[in-house]
């Protein structure tokens, strides 16, 4: 009698342990990601919501008072912020070039061109330099009487006021930023190549495909997720990590032609003492990054499907 009673109890206990094990397995992923989620919510999402809320309050005499959309109206009437938005559009247009450069270089390194190990270290080296140091170096190189104009003069080309011409300065700063940061994107591309099926490349060689055909029909589809990641991170870097270069190389000049939203935010917060207006500009910058990022991902997915 005792045996017949104990066996069901043993089965129930075993079933209970199995159920607890299953529940533990289901909860394990949530427990593991919980710290990261708490950090994101506490240090990213919550401050973002506070900043959005703060953007609807006033500065100066109206400090803390609700002003509705007045800050946003002031933003879009400000010529400097209008210039910053135009420069954002320029960055979006130049973004494919900023991604294509490390992508092509990573392709050549992966295909083991002569000296590929040397080039890998050389290309990555600028990524470890401070933007202040990079800006100071290129201030000397791009000075009106600097080495770059000296080389141009030696081949019969007139000197260019790289940092003093409003129509040239933004291109110069963006070019320096791309040079200083593409090493990190190159490393990401090389990591993506590690997941690429080498048999596809061999098949392309056997079929006599040219390098452009191999890149378009094999490499780009095979690295679609890597390309999407590099596009988004490069865009975020161009919109939020150029302050050091702008501050050292042009200080927003000449004539405000190199203003970007992040530099405008610093001016309003740090020099003009208008934190609510700076919060409104930060909110606009966040919306721009979100919209541009989603559009880029959508276009990339469509391009990959067509290739």
Number of helices: 13
CATH architecture of the largest domain: Orthogonal Bundle
Tell me roughly what share of residues is in helical segments. Answer: over 70%
| Biggest pleated-sheet summary | none
Q: Provide the domain count.
A: 2
Rg, please? 27 Å
Classified by CATH, the class of the largest domain is Mainly Alpha
Based on secondary structure, the structural category is mainly alpha
What would the principal axes of the Cα set say about the shape?
A: flat
N-end to C-end Cα span: 73 Å
Q: How many individual β-strands?
A: 0
Topology pattern, helix = H, strand = E:
HHHHHHHHHHHHH
What can you tell me about this protein's structure?
By secondary structure, the chain is mostly helical. It has two domains: 1-54; 73-306, MetI-like (MetI-like fold). It is built from 13 helices and no strands. It is flat and about 70 Å long. One of its GO terms (cellular component) is plasma membrane.
What would a concise description of this structure say?
The protein is mainly alpha-helical.
Blueprint (SSEs and pairs):
Layout: H1 2-54, H2 70-77, H3 79-110, H4 116-124, H5 131-141, H6 147-154, H7 169-193, H8 198-206, H9 211-222, H10 224-240, H11 243-249, H12 261-271, H13 275-306
């Amino acid at each position: 009698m005792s045996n017949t009673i104990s066996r069901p109890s043993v089965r129930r206990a075993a079933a209970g342990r199995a159920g607890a094990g299953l529940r533990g397995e289901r909860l394990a992923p949530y427990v593991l990601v919980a710290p990261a989620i708490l950090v994101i919510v506490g240090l990213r999402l919550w401050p973002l919501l506070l900043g959005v809320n703060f953007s609807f309050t006033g500065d100066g005499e109206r400090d803390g008072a609700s002003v509705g959309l007045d800050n946003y109206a002031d933003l879009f009437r400000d010529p400097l912020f209008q210039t910053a938005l135009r420069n954002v559009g320029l960055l979006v247009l130049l973004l494919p070039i900023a991604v294509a450069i490390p992508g092509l270089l990573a392709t050549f390194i992966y295909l083991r061109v002569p000296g590929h190990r040397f080039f890998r270290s050389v290309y990555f080296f600028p990524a470890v330099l401070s933007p202040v140091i990079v800006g100071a170096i290129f201030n000397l190189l791009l000075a009106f009487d600097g080495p770059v104009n000296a080389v141009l003069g030696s081949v019969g080309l007139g000197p260019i006021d790289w940092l003093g011409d409003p129509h040239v300065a933004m291109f110069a700063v963006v070019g320096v930023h791309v040079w200083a940061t593409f090493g990190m994107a190159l490393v990401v591309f090389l990591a993506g190549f590690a997941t690429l099926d080498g048999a596809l490349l061999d098949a392309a060689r056997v079929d006599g495909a040219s390098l452009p055909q191999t890149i378009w029909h094999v490499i780009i589809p095979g690295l679609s997720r890597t390309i999407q990641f590099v596009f988004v991170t490069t865009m975020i870097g161009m919109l939020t990590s150029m302050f050091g270069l702008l501050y050292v190389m042009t200080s927003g000049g000449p004539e405000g032609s190199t203003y970007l939203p992040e530099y405008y935010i610093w001016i309003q917060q740090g020099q003009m003492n208008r934190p609510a207006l700076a919060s409104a500009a930060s909110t606009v910058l966040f919306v721009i990054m979100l919209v541009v990022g989603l559009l880029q991902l959508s276009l990339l997915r469509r391009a990959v499907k067509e290739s």
